[in-house]
Amino acid sequence: MRLPSFPTLIRTFYTITNTTRFARSPSTQKALGPLTRGTVLKSMPTIPFLGSLFSSSTKDMTDYPVQKSDDEWRAVLNKAMPPPLVAPPLESNALTYISFLNILLTQPPFPTEQFRILREKGTEPPFTGAYDKHSPSSGTYACAACSAPLYRATHKFKSGCGWPAYFDSIPGAVVRHTDRSFGMARTEITCANCGGHLGHVFKGEGYPTPTDERHCVNSISLNFRGEEVGEGRAQ
Fold first, then answer.
1. What is the pLDDT of residue 79?
2. pLDDT exceeds 50 at position 57
3. What is the 3-state secondary structure (H, E, C) of 149-195?
4. Which of 61, 123, 225, 232 is most buried, by CB atoms within 10 Å?
5. How many CB atoms lie under 10 A from the CB of residue 61?
């Protein structure tokens, strides 16, 4: 029997320890009883220990140019919810369920994930982000919250860590903070324009890059533009 790959195991573990939302088909609802269409089902509670391992608890007191309330950020980051994912009927064969689980584990995260990651300093699961293996020859990665340019395509390199990696940023685009969550000191990076959480930066890992730094960034915190954008903040 062939064992699932490591990325698949990570995605599966992440899914069962975080909220999963989907609408069940009518036949499934009948089998399960008084569940209504669109019911939000939750899996096992998130394990705090693992959440602390990847997220950041830094309290950011920086006075960023772009200031919004949590409700205003939710409105910006959660503009369009995707259609509900309909589970196959209980009597479906194994291949149908395998196909459904594959979609569930590989589809892009819900837009609400943008608020959790950018404003609550969360982390997307490794090997799932849209820009993990994205390797353009030119262009700019901008903040998904405020559109400020952050990284150039030429800053990106293959690290194999499961998240987009950059050896440098556009000058003045990223702010660094000391993150002491999980009993260790790491360097958190945020957008200098709006304070959106990007990820963490690590130094001295031995990558053959000009800076020997790895900006480990959540894909969901970024938007890619095909054109080169100069320094400065979004208007």
1. 62
2. yes
3. EEEEHHHEECCCCCCCEECCCCCCCEEEEEECHHHCCEEEEEECCCC
4. 123
5. 7
Tell me the sheet residues that pair with 149: 142
Q: Would you place residue 45 in the very low, low, confident or very high pLDDT band (cuts 50, 70, 90)?
A: very low
Could you tell me which of 143, 166, 122 has the C-alpha nearest to residue 65? 143
User: What span, in angstroms and rounded, lies between the C-alpha atoms of 160 and 11?
Assistant: 16
Instruction: Tell me the C-alpha distance between 125 and 141, whole Å.
Output: 20
Stretch among 25-39, 64-78, 137-151 having the lowest mean pLDDT: 25-39
Whether 216 is a known active-site residue: answer: yes
Look-up of token digits 């990284």: 151
Sign of the torsion angle spanned by Cα atoms 42, 43, 47, 52: negative
Distance CA(202)–CA(151), nearest Å, equals: 16
pTM for the predicted model, two decimal places: 0.64
Contact 174, 215 (CB under 8 A): yes
One of 146, 191, 194, 216 is an active-site residue; which one? 216
pLDDT at res. 98: 75
Give the angle subtended at the CA of 177 by the CAs of 172 and 182, to the nearest 5°.
150
